[in-house]
Amino acid sequence: MSAKTIIIIALIYFIVINIIASLLAVVDKRKAVKDKWRIPESTLLLAGLLGGACGEYLTMKRIHHKTRHAKFMIGLPLEFTLHIVIIVLIIAKVAN
Q: Which of 41, 43, 75, 77 is deepest in the core (most CB within 10 A)?
């Protein structure tokens, strides 16, 4: 597989997982407002860890959801930093 293909696949993955993580945050917010069954926090954090931290964090800030929970307001940016490191390592590996 060429370096360009690997980078494109990684980019598509991060776009898709960020959309999914953002949608999970929106659905959880709607369920919270309607006092219905909620998406577990562990699922929201896992979606962030799997690559959706940036989109999920920005969405949560935008819709004012879980902004008082340190595990989200600190954890998601830390996960995003981890993703940046992983992306840089992948690019460095592929470039060699």
A: 75
